[in-house]
């Protein structure tokens, strides 16, 4: 089940989050994280986070679809399995970093190397509202 966090939808609709000008990053998650529609901040996922990315680049919003350039997480710690990822708005603190979307269905073992994230090239890209 992949989803846009409901509280992120609310913030987007209230113009509290700008998908183009904000700094967005990706967190790689183990299966220890269980999605909850009530989660709002990155502090809800930190226990299951394997690694976080740098900022997403070339962000666009077209016809209600959010996209960005593909990204590579470098030197991801080994010994884990990436089960999902979360996109979040980086504010500098896990207590206030807004969770935006959750994408699961992954099964990527880590070995200390890089993990490339290639966003969907179809109609939904990272996510569609």
Helices and strands, with pairings:
Blueprint (H helix, E strand, L loop, with lengths): L2 E2 L1 H8 L10 E6 L19 E4 L7 E3 L2 E3 L3 E3 L7 E9 L8 E12 L5 E3 L9 E2 L1
Antiparallel strand pairs: 1-8, 2-3, 2-7, 4-5, 5-10, 6-9, 7-8
Give a nutshell description of this structure.
The chain has 129 residues and is mainly β.
Please, could you describe this protein's structure?
- The two termini are 16 Å apart.
- This protein has one helix and ten strands; from the N terminus they run βαβββββββββ.
- The model has no long low-confidence stretch (mean pLDDT 96).
- By secondary structure, the protein is mainly beta.
- The radius of gyration is 14 Å and the shape is globular.
- The longest helix is centred in the first third of the chain and has 8 residues, at 6-13.
- The strands form three sheets. It has a five-stranded antiparallel sheet. Strands 4-5-10 form a three-stranded antiparallel sheet, with no helix packed on it.
Descriptive tags:
129 residues; mainly beta; five-stranded antiparallel beta sheet; three-stranded antiparallel beta sheet; 1 helix; 10 strands; globular
DSSP helical segment count: 1
What is the overall silhouette? Answer: globular
Rg from Cα: 14 Å
Number of strands: 10
Structural class: mainly beta
Q: How confident is the prediction overall: mean pLDDT?
A: 96
| Amino-to-carboxy terminus distance | 16 Å
Strand order of the largest sheet: 1-8-7-2-3
N to C succession of SSEs? EHEEEEEEEEE
Largest sheet: 5 strands, antiparallel
**Low-confidence blocks of residues:** none
Strand content: 35-45%
Q: Which percent bin holds the helix content?
A: under 10%
